[in-house]
Amino acid sequence: MDRKRIVVFAEQVNGxxxxxxxELLGAGRRLADKLGATLSALVLGYNIAHLPPILxxxxxxxxxxxxxxxxxxxxxxxxxxxxxxxxxxxxxPPHTILLGSTTTGRxxxxxxxxxxxxxxxxxCTELDIGPFEYTNSKDPSKSGLFxxxxxxxxxxxxESLKARILGPWKNPQMATVRPxxxxxxxxxxxRQGEVIPVPVNLDPGDLRLQIVETVRNLxxxxxxxxxxxxxxxxxxxxxxxxxxxxxxxxxxxxNSAVGSSRKAVDSGWIPYAHQVGQTGKTVRPQLYxxxxxxxxxxxxxxxxxxxxxxxxxKDSAAPIFKFAHYGIVGDxxxxxxxxxxxxxxxxxxxxxxxxxxxxxxxxxxxxxLQSR
Length: 372
Prior knowledge:
Elements: E1 5-9, E2 12-13, E3 16-17, H1 19-35, E4 38-45, H2 52-57, E5 62-67, H3 76-89, E6 96-100, H4 103-116, E7 120-124, E8 126-134, E9 144-156, E10 161-165, E11 173-177, E12 194-197, E13 229-233, H5 242-250, E14 256-260, H6 262-266, E15 287-291, H7 297-300, E16 309-313, E17 326-329, H8 332-353, H9 362-365
Parallel strand pairs: 1-4, 1-6, 4-5, 5-12, 6-11, 7-11, 13-14, 13-15, 15-16, 16-17
Antiparallel strand pairs: 2-3, 8-9, 9-10
């Protein structure tokens, strides 16, 4: 019997891998090692021959690549056709298929699950492999011990509880995972893997939808999931002008971005692309500075995996102080300008002290911003 297989769908846009694919490889590697399975990455697109080495370096044992002009931009039917044809060509279905809870993943995953007649758990925040024993007197065929069940874990009841969803009766067991919650493996240049071309045989009916033009919202250029430092503002800012001050603070750090709570977005103070939390982005930067954010559970679930959290709030009883690593109780309009002044002053001191030496930015000199 062939070795078990875990498949990760690696998204790419214009030939650039999206972070969710590498995050899924990190989670998939752990599951595959526990299961004793092969970790396979699947990437579709056009002119993407440069991507397999990246996926292998981040944990894939093998990469299936479908490189074809009709796959240049994502369309549901062509992608579904190529993937289902590939799965049907294998002697046995994969144990698990993982996709991101992105616009593409949320469209593609249910199409695949319906075609393969299997279950799908959406928006997972944790994954594991373990045993499951089930008894069903009305349908004994489903009863038994399933030693290698996918534990697809996701928040429920307004993020106050975790639900562990199981479906071991038929493979593949499928799940989509929220971007930002899994940790990619470090790049390993020495890793070796297999690259396998995938035949592309499309039906004319798969091409009925034609993409005439793609217009990307400029606000979507904000990629919170890649920022090492995020300065976030909440309703406690009092007005949209408060975000201009936060932008100044963020500019003191390299590779930084401005985030927001849902209430500030709903108030029209800042675009949705900046939202962190249950209905926004899940992030894990090296430094997260929360300004005027109470720390409600809906926001917390999107940022509590940050390596260092600094909270600034004039309400000493704000929930965010219960899980922040450092807290400053005070008026953010007094605290933040002073932070900016001191950071800029320190930057100047570093510049003056580095004459004749390779210059190190402020971010390079702050331990929590250095690679770990």
